[in-house]
Amino acid sequence: MQTKLTLRLDDxxxxxxKREARKRGKSVSQMVSEFFDSLDGGVTxxxxxxxxxxxxxxxxxxxxxxxxxxxxxxxxxxx
Length: 79
Hints:
Layout: H1 11-24, H2 28-39, H3 51-56, H4 67-78
């Protein structure tokens, strides 16, 4: 069952949300729903992610990456 929810947001936030929804080909309601689903670890469809993020899904599947690897990456990136 779907129920209506009213949110009070700043006009600028609403404009940004509508622009982003258009870019993603979704409604603002769909984006809000997906956000709330993600809060409790709900399963999110790969289509819910932006294209760049979607292209990275599974990139590290089966790889062993340690905290030291990540720190080394950040050092190399920012030096």
